[in-house]
Write a structure and sequence with these properties.
alpha+beta; 6-stranded mixed sheet; 15 helices; binds adenosine-5'-diphosphate; binds magnesium ion
Length: about 575
């Protein structure tokens, strides 16, 4: 049985499998590779995911969720229709879809996956991701940091690459991850990681939407949820349009109430709107480079993630670093491809036998301690410093502060602040110690940070027998019974694809549109326009004609996409000169 690799992104989810010595992306039922990380509850209570769900964000924002990954590992519940869902449950729906698609593609059951997470995901977020997979019926054989996955693929797919250090910048929809990687032979060593879990293309869309309102004297808060969703989509489209080479303007239109509003966004304005977002990117880059030992001698900066397609971003980086970054070949698929390679490593594929990847922990982990009896504000006693290589285990002994003290209480934290108040609390534990004078009794705390980036803690007191393993974030560690209950709740809700056949064609066409070149795009665009026009008139004959036309186009283009794009170059006597294609 194959293990699959999954990139569970804020905006898009992709799956990949290692087959015949290659990482092969798994197509979804829409005929593409990127499944939108969106969930919508239909009126009959069934659930749809992917692009069809993302489309419903415009018409049924109260029943649809996207970008919920930012709430992973929190208590936040999201209301769709009348039901409340936890972020990990919403993720589970998308994962269930991915599992189905993979099973169809591989023609065998799929039960195990390597899943990538933002390097900067904390303990709660990692546990929530594991839980989401479990709820979808997938065992997580490994959580891998997204930039590490990207690095693995970037390195592994380019056998001619020189040894040396890379800085990989993954700028997606909701998160930014930066990692510095050292490559030597088949060894890929992650040296340091920095990131921001709440920074990405979504923030740029929001800035554009605010600007649209300001220019049109609209109050953002006064828009209906539907209008708000359309505005965000218009903003995203205008942003993407300005990524096309040669494009000067991104047009936005919004029908709000009785009136239609417009805005034409140019590159200069987009760059201005991006400034505050890019300033935050700069902060993260600086933090990564602050690790002087890791940063010394970086040879190349590689951009991955959908938002790194933006020319204004390249300009910003070039100005900042006085060097032109390299854009990875498939910026929005590379993490999934890397997860696929890691799945292959997990399966012990022969072709990958000598590939070794080491990873590091992104945060420091420690215990709250007091310096003296009168010390009021506890600070971090770090047990595992950030950037330690995984897996790692460290222990430390803590002594009683008072005479006759009966207990030692430990609070566990993650983060870089000196005072624990500024860090994330992961859990706490109290152990009994024999009575004695201050400083005579102690407890030993052992931290083990596993390869998935999840912390295990055990504490043993001088009393001897008090050894306890702590379960951190109990909400995310379900007992068997609770797990069964949660599974049942999820499984009761049916995923549909069949019930919305007409929408399926539309969805396929939309997803194809993204992948086509300009000429074919224009043709498919006309088909979509006719289709939408017919749908709006509700005329059955018109609708049937439009459907037929669109499905013809979809079939033809899908067929053509399968063809090898390099075929046309062969036999032309062209010399493919590696030097000229090098990206430096
Ligand atoms: P994630 O890993 O968060 O799922 P992706 O790496 O797939 O995200 O990137 C999604 C983000 O990239 C979205 O914010 C989307 O608007 C943005 N994006 C995708 N294509 C383009 C483009 N051509 N120009 C600008 N932004 C883009
Ligand atoms: Mg991503």
């Amino acid at each position: 049985m194959s293990i699959i690799g999954i990139d569970l992104g804020t905006s898009n989810t992709l799956a990949c499998v290692f087959q015949d010595g290659k990482a092969v992306l798994i197509p979804n039922k829409e005929g593409g590779y990127l499944t939108k990380s969106a969930v919508s509850v239909m009126e009959d209570g069934t659930i749809i995911t992917g692009r069809a769900a993302k489309e419903r964000l415009l018409t049924h924002p109260d029943r649809t969720a996207a970008s919920y990954k930012v709430f992973m590992g929190t208590e936040r519940e999201i209301c769709l229709g009348q039901q409340y869902f936890k972020p990990e449950e919403l993720s589970a729906f998308v994962l269930r879809q991915i599992k189905q698609d993979a099973e169809e593609f591989l023609q065998e059951p799929v039960e195990e996956a390597v899943i990538s997470v933002p390097a900067y995901f904390n303990d709660n977020q990692r546990c929530a991701t594991k839980l989401a997979a479990q709820l979808a019926g997938l065992k997580v054989s490994r959580l891998i940091n997204e930039p590490s996955a990207a690095a693995v693929y970037y390195r592994w797919s380019d056998s001619a690459a020189e040894d040396g250090k890379l800085m990989i910048v993954d700028f997606g929809g909701g998160t930014l991850d930066v990692s510095i990687v050292d490559c030597f032979d088949n060894i890929i060593e992650i040296l340091c990681i920095a990131g921001d879990n709440h920074l990405g293309g979504d923030d740029i869309d929001a800035a554009i939407a605010r600007y649209f309102c300001e220019k049109n004297h609209l109050c953002r808060e006064a828009l209906t949820p539907e209008e708000g969703a359309v505005l965000m989509r218009q903003a995203e489209n205008a942003k993407a349009a300005l990524s096309e080479s040669g494009a000067e303007k991104g047009l936005m239109k919004l029908q709000a109430g009785e009136k239609e509003y417009e805005l034409s966004l140019d590159r200069e304005q987009l760059a201005k709107l991006c400034e505050p977002v890019f300033k935050r990117v700069e902060k993260v880059l600086r933090r990564a480079l602050e690790n002087k030992k890791a940063a010394k001698g970086i040879r190349r900066v590689v951009l991955v993630g959908g938002s790194s397609k933006m020319p204004v971003f390249h300009d910003f980086l070039e100005k900042l670093m006085s060097a032109r970054p390299v854009i990875a070949a498939e910026p929005d698929k590379i993490v999934a491809l890397g997860a696929g390679v890691c799945a292959g490593i997990k399966e012990r594929r022969e072709e990958l036998q000598d590939v070794v990847m080491t990873d590091v922990c992104p945060f420091s982990l420690g215990v709250a301690t007091y310096n003296s009896q009168i010390d009021r504000e506890p600070h971090m006693a770090v047990l595992i410093p950030r950037s330690s290589m995984l897996p790692v285990s460290h222990s430390s002994r803590f002594y009683t502060l008072h005479d006759g003290q009966e207990y030692l209480k430990f609070e566990f934290y993650q983060g870089e602040d000196y005072f624990v108040a500024g860090n994330l609390k992961l859990g706490e534990l109290q152990v009994r110690v024999p009575r004695g004078t201050a400083g005579s009794q102690w407890a030993e705390v052992v931290f083990t940070y596993d390869i998935d980036g999840i912390l295990h803690v055990s504490v043993e007191s001088s009393g001897g027998d008090k050894r306890e393993t702590v379960i951190l974030n109990p909400n995310l560690h379900l007992s068997e019974e609770e797990m069964d209950k949660a599974m049942e709740r999820i499984n009761r809700i049916r995923l549909t694809t069949e019930a919305h056949r007409d929408q399926q064609l539309f969805v396929q066409a939309l997803s194809l549109y993204e992948e086509l070149g300009d000429d074919r795009r224009a043709e498919l665009g006309r088909g979509l326009e006719i289709y939408c026009g017919a749908r709006d008139t509700q005329d059955a004959i018109n609708m049937r004609r439009a459907e037929e036309y669109l499905s013809e186009l979809v079939e033809r283009f899908q067929r053509e996409l399968q063809e090898d794009p390099f075929e046309q170059l062969r036999g032309l006597g062209l010399e493919m000169d590696g030097e000229e294609f090098a990206d430096e």
